[in-house]
Amino acid sequence: MADDPRIRMLDAPGKLDFLHSRTVELPRAVTALEAWAMMTAGQPRWLGAAFRLRDAISARFGVKRIGSFSGKPVASVAAGDHLDFFLVEEAAPDLLVLTERDRHLDVMTCLSVAGRRLTVTASVVTHNAFGRAYMLPVAPAHRLLVASMLRKLRRRMAREAGTVPAR
What we know:
Structural class: alpha+beta
């Protein structure tokens, strides 16, 4: 992660309350937006249920509902646009920087592409006890979710290229 200057984080790693980065080699090159669209398309039902549970609990603490990933194809985005519940902070073919900020915590997700290599980096800064408590279950769930989304992305791309049989 430190060797890719395009990766954006909310702050220096030592000042973050959560930092997770995962890199995968893809079957072919894609833009950061294409990777996002494929990763968030066709999410499993359990993820929708997890988002609904998150919304039900968090709303009691004044946190806005985020729903889930829409899975809608998006041809282009620019800074200031929204992708589902995220604000687009920066968009380029090789970089997509998304944020969600509230009084409890700030979240940044960065998708960085270099050739066939995709890196997904999430950084979080918490502002209070609720933000810290919120991250207790979210941090391990986030790691699992990103790993699952990246596996799904690689399988889908390999299937499209005809290099693996469909499941």
